[in-house]
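A.,

Following up on our hallway conversation. Structure tokens first:
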């Protein structure tokens, strides 16, 4: 899982929190198979409502634990090993006389249990290539549970790219005019980074439903897997952007859209439908560009391109935590 990808000079999956599933994907006392981080996982919601995520494959024969769900235990369909929600083998092993074979539950290796947080309608999983505990948390997003904010909808894509491309893209000022209908070069209002988070604010007129309107956008990353895009002008709007590494060539990009609820109820449905259409068409050309983009370790940047190299340095901490401790993490450009 820690190999560098063929297109990029870094691992496919950095050490960070990632959005594995929506909360409503996993029903109580049911489990799902999910592909992420170049492996197969199972997600299970117990009787108590808590979600558990485990490696999907038994370490005895490498079989996916999809045979039977017995209460709150998973049963391997080949050798009968039974695993509890902590990933421990608690029974059911067939005896083996082969050298190094499993002789019973005491000799059976556990399934890896992943660190999970469920918040704001998302099931977040923490990935660390060495299995270390999380060094930061993703904060609660108040708009997701506020009556004053209207859920507009969710949009998902599977994209042939690496999540670092999307992170760096958030501060590439030139592309906003070329790919997102800004009518002028975006102006950098603010950029600041700290350990595990950075924020950037840009401003410029943007075509919104055919008319140029003054627009101000703040993008705030928490780790490399969760970003909040907040528009304050021309109207309050939130996009919760999440990136999930699937394998060495693909990521799953998800948008969860919210808008400040209009006071007139009939306008809510009109605004929701219009914004979903606008956001989808605003993004899909950019995704096609990313799928065919070549990653350059030493790009020939020009004045006005934005703090791309600062963000690239910020990203290093999620591949090498020692480098993070040695380097200053705040920059103005």
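Then the amino acids I'd put at each of the 333 positions:
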């Amino acid at each position: 899982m820690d190999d560098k990808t063929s297109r990029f000079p870094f691992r496919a999956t950095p050490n960070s929190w990632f959005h594995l599933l929506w909360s409503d994907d996993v029903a109580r006392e049911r489990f799902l198979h999910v592909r992420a981080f170049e492996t197969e996982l199972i997600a299970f919601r117990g009787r108590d409502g808590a979600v558990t995520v485990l490696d999907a494959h038994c370490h005895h024969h490498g079989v996916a634990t999809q045979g039977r769900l017995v209460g709150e235990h998973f049963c391997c369909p080949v050798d009968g090993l039974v695993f509890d929600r902590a990933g421990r083998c608690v029974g059911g092993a067939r005896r083996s006389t082969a050298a190094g074979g499993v002789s019973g539950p005491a000799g059976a290796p556990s399934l890896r249990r992943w660190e999970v947080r469920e918040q704001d309608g998302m099931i977040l999983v923490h990935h660390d290539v060495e299995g270390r505990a999380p060094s930061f948390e993703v904060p609660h997003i108040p708009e997701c549970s506020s009556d004053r904010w209207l859920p507009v909808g969710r949009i998902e894509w599977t994209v042939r790219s690496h999540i670092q491309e999307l992170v760096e893209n958030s501060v590439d000022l030139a592309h906003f005019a070329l790919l997102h209908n800004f009518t002028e070069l975006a102006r950098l209002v603010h950029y600041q980074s700290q350990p595990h988070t950075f924020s950037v604010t840009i401003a410029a007129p943007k075509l919104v439903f055919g008319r140029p309107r003054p627009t101000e956008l703040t993008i705030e990353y928490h780790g490399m897997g969760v970003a909040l895009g907040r528009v304050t002008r021309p109207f309050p709007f939130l996009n919760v952007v999440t990136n999930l590494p699937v394998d060495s060539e693909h990521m799953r990009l998800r948008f969860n859209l919210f808008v400040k609820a209009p006071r007139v109820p009939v306008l809510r449905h009109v605004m929701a439908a219009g914004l979903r259409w606008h956001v989808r068409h605003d993004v899909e050309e950019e995704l096609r560009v990313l799928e065919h983009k070549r990653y350059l370790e030493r790009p020939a940047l020009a004045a006005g391109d934005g703090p791309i190299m600062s963000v690239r340095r910020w990203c290093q901490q999620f591949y090498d935590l020692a480098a993070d401790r040695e380097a200053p993490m705040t920059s103005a450009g």
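The longest helix spans residues 265-291. Curious whether your intuition agrees with the design.

B.
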